[in-house]
Amino acid sequence: MIYDAIVIGMGPAGVSASIYLKRAGLNILCLDKAMIGGTLNYIDKVDNYPGIISINGPELSALMYQQIQNLDIPYQNQSVLDILDGEVKKVLTSKEEYSCRNIIIATGRIARSLGLEHESELMGHGISTCALCDGALYKGKDVAVIGGGNSALSEAMYLSKICRHVYLIHRRDVFRADQQLIDQMNNQQNVEQILQAKVDSLLPKDGKLESITLDNGRTLQVSCMFTYVGYVPGTKFHTSLPIMDEQGYIEVNQNCETEIKGIYAVGDIIKKDLYQIVTATSEGAIAATHIVKNIKK
Ligand code: NAP
Predict the structure, then answer these.
(1) CB within 6 Å of ligand 1 — which residues?
(2) Which end of the chain is more exposed for a tag (fewer CB within 10 A), N or C?
(3) What total number of domains does the chain contain?
């Protein structure tokens, strides 16, 4: 069988693309190696999606999953290993080889690490990139959050309701997060802001994090360090195609199509200025609509 389109990655961008493709009557397949919703599953609160006043990330993911089911959108839990261009394109997964006319890459990004000694071995043992998943393990304890963007501040707020004390450590003297979040955090008694400071080293003890030392000489005894220092493109399967910039982001035109006809990219994997759920869903709709137009021509 040759699918009209295959969507790879089922975060908000891929889900949106699949809804538009399916409702247009195309023969599609959706693939993801993990859960529908992508990084949404690791976010505490979404407060800026029009029409939804406030919802937590996993709840919004669950609604997306329900929508996929209601629309009978074919979805396979498979990891994509490679894509091959041609008049008929191929998507190779760990289990199958699929043929299609169009591909939408919506594989998102992964959390950036600080690149410190012991960081990878302590992941899951006192280092985390998901307050929502791991915060409860540190109830009543002291923790650190690293970063100055929307993720760091909103997750620091979330942790402040569970943990005893939250050190928010940022390398500059101004935050890049939204002012509303900064105001909320300034009113949170148990969040201590440490500005113009970076983590210099991690001290493990018995396989767990015991303390972190900052470049200002201060050592903090913390049970967990949550890093929110941005994201990097995570997928590698499309690296053989000439569609990425030097940082691994995919470059697309206004239709979200890459230089290769029939290969589209949407959401956090593309090079752009604004990484938001609302932009991701919009790009999914744009790519899907362009495919539908081309097929119906
Ligand atoms: P981000 O906006 O890229 O912020 C990353 C933060 O980490 C920055 O403060 C940066 O410092 C710091 N950082 C980067 N590398 C570092 C290093 N090696 N050492 C120490 N600090 C480092 O990432 P994000 O907060 O995860 O947000 C990603 C995107 O999602 C953004 O577009 C954001 O607006 C969006 N988002 C939105 C919401 C919301 O609207 N509610 C919530 C979460 C995320 P500098 O500031 O000095 O560069």
Answers:
(1) 48, 114, 146-152, 154, 171-172, 176, 198, 228-230, 275-276
(2) C
(3) 2
Structure confidence by residue, pLDDT tens digits, 54-107: 999 999 999 999 999 999 999 999 999 999 999 999 999 999 999 999 999 999
Q: Which of 154, 171, 194, 216 is the best mutation target for the ligand 1 pocket, counting ligand atoms within 8 Å of the beta carbon and taking the most?
A: 171
- pTM exceeds 0.90: no
Domain end, chosen from 227, 247, 273, is at: 227
Residue indicated by tokens 């993990």: 34
Dist. CA 272 → ligand 1 center (Å):
15
Q: Are residues 102 and 237 in the same domain?
A: yes
Print the domain residue range for 280. Answer: 2-110+231-296
Best of 53, 128, 151 to mutate for ligand 1, by most ligand atoms within 8 A of CB? 151
Length of the chain: 297
Tens digits of residue pLDDT in 170-218: 999 999 999 999 999 999 999 999 999 999 999 999 999 999 999 999 9
CATH code at position 95: 3.50.50.60
CA 191 to chain centre: 25
